[in-house]
Design a protein that fits this description.
single chain, alpha/beta, 9-stranded parallel β-sheet, two-stranded antiparallel sheet
């Protein structure tokens, strides 16, 4: 097994992809809009991925709500942004937490139905006035305690629907003022100031999965972004935050990173990420990554198996009842 999650090119697996994925045995897969047409098609795609391996595999998606939602209208209902729950929290914290739990449970209903078992949410990035728009209204608030509370509700809602959560972007993206999709952010905050950023991650450090940030935190490592910094991964994420679960890199294709994609994959795994994330389904890149990347380590394989085993069976819940109650609660903040 290779310590990488791959994307796919289209709505169904090509003959070349079936052969390659079967031979390469990646740790998992990620779904994007180009892979989605409708419920039946998407379920057939996820079933085909599992059939390739004869076992369950993590199949990821970014289905946060708002502008980050791969499964969209009219096939699926629109889900609110993180900021909607932040606004409600200012007036009624308990209602906001319950609304978030209901919202996440409804998202899980949609994901579970089509065979997706991992959602790249919640964001635990603490927002501030300078936070880059790439995070912006996706964030759950400006206060670490609030972010942790709403993040916990998200995890609980997803898990009750049979879907695992990935907390991101550890150790915190809130201070970045440029988009890591486009360039490499530098955060100049002191170690003391960064205590606020890592606080939600500490609160939810028992989560089964997390995703890194492509950001240089100069107080910790002046040369390497968190994804490629063995110091940050070992001393901050693993020890200070206390996260012991499965650690994904953010997407290797983002312009915050340099070098070819295979070298990026090697570097993030060498730094301590368990799984490299390669999203775009470009066959030459995927082939080169698998040629150059060593097999998954025993420690990472154990973390992967533990994370998959931690995904509970979905409970019985009515989608319309979930979203109706959520909307009733959210109406308080309008």
């Amino acid at each position: 097994m290779k310590p990488v999650v791959f994307g796919m090119s289209g709505l169904t697996l090509t003959t070349e992809e079936k052969q390659f994925f079967g031979d390469a045995d990646p740790a998992g897969y990620i779904i994007f809009g180009r892979n989605i047409e409708n419920r039946n098609q998407l379920r057939a795609l996820t079933d085909s991925l599992r059939d390739l391996h004869g076992r369950d595999v993590p199949i990821l998606i970014d289905q946060e709500g708002g502008r980050v939602a791969r499964m969209q209208e009219p096939e699926w209902q629109y889900f609110p942004t993180g900021n909607a729950f932040h606004q409600l929290y200012q007036k009624a914290p308990i209602s906001a937490i319950e609304a978030m739990r209901l919202n996440a449970r409804a998202i899980a209903h949609n994901l579970h139905e089509v065979g997706i078992n991992v959602n790249c949410a919640p964001l635990l990035d603490v927002r501030n006035e300078d936070t880059v728009d790439a995070i912006g209204d996706r964030a759950l608030g400006y206060d670490p305690l609030q972010v942790a509370a709403l993040g916990k509700a998200t995890i609980e809602g997803l898990e009750s629907g049979g879907v695992a959560a990935i907390i991101k972007h550890i150790p915190g993206h809130g201070r970045a003022t440029i988009d890591s999709h486009m360039d490499l952010p530098h955060v100049h905050a002191s170690q003391q100031e960064l205590e606020m950023d890592i606080a939600p991650f500490i609160s939810l450090s028992n989560s089964s999965m997390a995703m890194t940030a492509h950001i240089i935190y100069e107080a910790w490592d002046k040369e390497r972004c968190a994804t490629m910094s063995s110091f940050i991964i070992e001393e901050i994420i693993r020890k200070k935050i206390g996260f012991e679960g499965l650690l994904f890199s953010d997407d290797l294709d983002m312009k915050a990173l340099k070098g070819d994609k295979a070298q990026r994959a090697i570097d993030v795994v060498a730094a301590g990420c368990d799984i490299a994330l390669n999203c775009w389904g470009r066959m030459p890149e995927m082939v080169e990554i698998c040629q150059k990347l060593d097999d998954i380590s025993d420690v990472s394989k154990i973390r992967l198996e533990r994370a998959l085993k931690a995904i509970p069976a979905a409970d019985n819940a009515d989608f319309d009842a979930l979203t109706s109650k959520r909307d009733q609660l959210l109406s308080v903040s309008q």
